[in-house]
Write a structure and sequence with these properties.
Layout lengths: L2 E3 L5 E3 L8 E2 L6 E2 L5 E6 L3 H13 L6 E5 L3 E2 L2 E2 L18 H7 L11 E4 L5 E3 L2 H10 L18 H16 L1 H6 L4 H22 L12 H10 L2 H5 L14 H11 L10 H11 L52
Parallel strand pairs: 3-4, 5-6
Antiparallel strand pairs: 1-2, 5-9, 7-8, 9-10
């Protein structure tokens, strides 16, 4: 979550520094190969959460192992402070920045998650979060589980791309543009764009269960990772406070529908999400105090979205339970 502050006080996200692809056809320096890479994520980060969900829905756990950085970091980078000896058990590193500097000793851009790290060399192959999950769907097909859903169906890609572009600009990145704005004008512009887009998405989802077609696609994954964090951090911490998610009936029902779908809610750890945002963003929350709320029990209440039809996994099937080492605590 690196960024620069423009002269106008608007938050501007820095481009990722190692935006390479891992491909099946030899068109990049990094080939698709089972066991070659470790996906490093953090439970707190929405961009990383996208990769966790897609990896799980497609059944790539056997081909791509996963390391989980803790929720706290400082200028040294994300830290594996939840692992024994504060080190990733496969990569043997204490700070994710070590893998970035193995790839480039002079690396000075943002050290971000998700990151695909080559296990043998310890080098980051890619931190290109925008393309990574699409490549999970299109480049790693040889390792998809039986019954894996098509999250990026070719016949809907143009529409999915269009929907995702607006969600990224106004919602995914929009909450950050609210939270890190340093002038009133910049904040208000981002705030208005955010809620205008949420209103439009509410209207779109009022009569359809999913964003594109009648199945879950990449577009739903990308919207949901922001919505699931909305009341816990964005509403208060980032001043996105026109309404809570629980006060937007369509989006709240849509979010609960996905939360209760295997592969979504079972990737969420609200305690670590709050610990990260309130504990790391000291310019926004100088005290570092982490709030106790909100009450998360509503995520498991009936949503009624089945009445809209749709087939969550299309012709596929739900994923099995998470790996033991990757399970999150039950809702408190």
């Amino acid at each position: 979550m690196t960024a620069t502050d423009s002269d106008a006080g608007a938050f501007q996200r820095e481009p990722v520094g190692l935006d390479e692809r891992i491909t099946a056809d030899g068109s990049s320096a990094w080939p698709v190969e089972a066991g070659r890479y470790r996906l490093v994520v953090a439970r707190a980060c929405p961009w990383a959460n996208r990769s966790v969900i897609v990896r799980r829905l497609l059944g790539l756990e056997g081909a791509i192992s996963m390391g989980i950085a803790g929720p706290l970091h400082d200028e040294r980078s994300w830290h594996f402070h939840d692992d024994p000896d504060n080190r990733d058990p496969v990569l043997g590193i204490e700070w994710l920045g070590e893998a970035y500097r193995k790839a480039d000793p002079d690396f000075d851009a943002g050290i971000t998650v998700p990151a695909m790290v080559e296990v043998a060399s310890g080098k980051v192959a890619s931190n290109g979060f925008q393309q990574l999950t699409l490549d999970f769907s299109t480049q790693w097909t040889a390792f998809h589980r039986e019954g894996a859903p098509d999250l990026y169906p070719e016949e809907h890609r143009a529409e999915i791309d269009e929907v995702m572009a607006s969600i990224y600009e106004d919602v995914n990145n929009g909450v950050y543009r609210c939270g890190f704005a340093t002038t009133q004008d910049a904040y208000e512009e981002a705030y208005r764009a955010l809620f205008a887009r949420l209103d439009a998405l509410s209207e779109r989802l009022a009569t359809r269960r999913f964003l594109v077609g009648d199945t879950i696609t990449e577009a739903d994954v990308r919207l949901w990772v922001t919505l699931v964090r909305f009341d816990a951090v964005y509403h208060g911490h980032f001043k996105c406070n026109r309404q809570k998610l629980t006060e937007m009936p369509v989006l709240w029902a849509y979010s609960r529908d996905l939360f209760q779908t295997p592969g979504f809610g079972d990737t969420i750890d609200f305690a670590k999400i709050k610990q990260h945002y309130y504990g790391v963003h000291d310019t926004v929350n100088p005290s570092g105090v982490v709030p106790l709320g909100p009450d998360n029990s509503g995520w498991l209440t009936p949503h009624g979205r089945e009445e809209l039809g749709g087939r969550p996994f299309g012709d596929g099937t739900p994923p099995g339970p998470p790996l033991e080492a990757e399970r999150v605590p039950p809702l408190a």
